[in-house]
Amino acid sequence: MTLLTLVRHGQTDWNLARRIQGSTDIPLNDTGRADARWAAGQLAGGVHHTIYASPLKRARETAEIIAAELGLDTPALDADLREREFGEGEGMLVADYLETYGDWDAEVPGAETLQGVADRALRALDRIALDARRRSAPLAESVIVVAHGGVIRSLIDHVSGGTLPRVGDIIRNGSATRFEASPGSLRLLEETVLL
Question: Among this protein's residues, is 112 annotated catalytic?
Fold first, then answer.
């Protein structure tokens, strides 16, 4: 069994402006760096063995800050943890996106589907959990994974059979969601903690 704590990256200027980032590589702002330090402080009460991150700057820097604060090795990067690609919707204000396309499940030219995001994120978590089990067998391993709101949302949706997250639920910058991974299985333990 592997405990996976998925942390949403800290705030960026585009988050603040409510602009869709997607795969656009936007860095953290000062509030985002504070979000990362705060998340590290919240995680400091537990035992964590390693940390992984999306290669996008906002997630990578969040993971680097958390790793430094917790005394972990440099984060390992996994491209399958990157944010959803929004195609023509990328860079739009959220309000304009919703007015143009109707909802997050709409078919947007060049955009990934939510299921596509969940599929690749699940592959990444399978690799991460397998690596953790190889290193710590038979003990449980605790891994921090810094990713994006869309990735975390797609995983929650997948493991809950579409019942979570509820409409209006927000996955805040710096918040964490805990999953338990075992061979062939991913289970939601806590939805969006550390708020």
Answer: no
Q: Which one has a higher pLDDT value, 92 or 132?
A: 92
Note if 49 is an active site residue. no
What phi, psi does 163 have (nearest 5°)?
Answer: -90, -20
Q: In this predicted model, what pLDDT tens digit does every residue of 131-156 receive, in sequence order?
A: 888 876 556 689 999 999 999 999 99
Amino acid at 40: A
CA distance 102 to 96: 10
Q: What confidence tens digit (pLDDT) does each residue in 175-187 have?
A: 999 999 988 899 9
102, with CB counted inside 10 A (0-12, 13-18, 19+), is exposed
> CB-based burial of residue 85 (10 Å sphere; 0-12 exposed, 13-18 middle, 19+ buried)?
middle
Of 49, 61, 69, 83, which one is the catalytic site residue? 83
Find the angle CA(91)-CA(113)-CA(121) to the nearest 5 degrees.
Answer: 95
Which pLDDT score is estimated for 35? Answer: 98
Kindly report the length of the chain. 195
